[in-house]
Amino acid sequence: MNIGFVTDTNILKKREGELIKESKFFDNTNFFIDYIDSLEKTSCTDRLMYFMPNIIMEELYYQKLRAFNEIYASIYKNYQDISYGLKGELPICKIEEVLNMEKEEYKKKIKVLELPYNKTIFKELINDAVKKNPPFDKTKEGKKSDAGYKDALIWKTILYSKEIDECEKLYFLSGDKVFEENKEYLSREFNNHHPNTTLKIVFFKPDGN
User: Fold this and answer.
1) Are strands 2-7 and 198-203 parallel, antiparallel or unpaired?
2) In the 8-state DSSP scheme, what is residue 199?
3) DSSP for 103-153?
4) How far apart are CA 159 and CA 163, in angstroms?
């Protein structure tokens, strides 16, 4: 049996201070990869696959980029203030180059899901946003008109990715209650696109653990 896993961004992202401590911005996702690899080396007959929607990869990328650049800007300012007493130049920031290299390495480990941007999906997104269909978040209506937009992009990526059809089961792990509270609605929608795959939506409290 092929079993797939997709993790939402809120499970994988970390606080700014923790992001800086990591040598690689995908370090906090490696435990999924390592766990799957270890299970496949046992007598387990199931084939486990880890999928990542490209929008999640890009969001993690920019979180790390933003956090690093903020720290570097602070260091640069302090360096300028005391440069009269220092020898040597402050190293040039090459964080984008480093992160892009890691991104390419990481793509070799996992199955990246790309959202096919076409008129059909664009119309669906507009319709879902206007009607506040899940995973657009009705609880924040009036506060944030776009609440759930990234969640909707992640969800559409799952719905329209043919790679999902390789799995008999797919686990979607999220720390967002909008998915858990709308399991039945989302499961019906998922079944229309992937009738031969069983979806399991699992809620994890996004507490960094």
Assistant:
1) unpaired
2) E
3) HHHHHTTSEEEPP---HHHHHHHHHHHHHT-TTS-GGGTTT-TTTTHHHHH
4) 10
Q: State residue 1's pLDDT score.
A: 83
What sign has the CA pseudo-torsion 196, 153, 150, 100?
positive
If one counts every other C-beta atom within 10 angstroms of the C-beta of residue 35, the result is 13
d(CA 20, CA 71): 8
Per residue in 40-68, pLDDT (tens digit) is: 666 566 788 889 999 988 988 888 888 88
- Region of 129 (left: φ > 0; alpha: ψ -120 to 50; beta: rest) is alpha
Q: What is the number of helices (H) and of strands (E) in the chain?
A: 9, 5
pTM for this one? 0.80
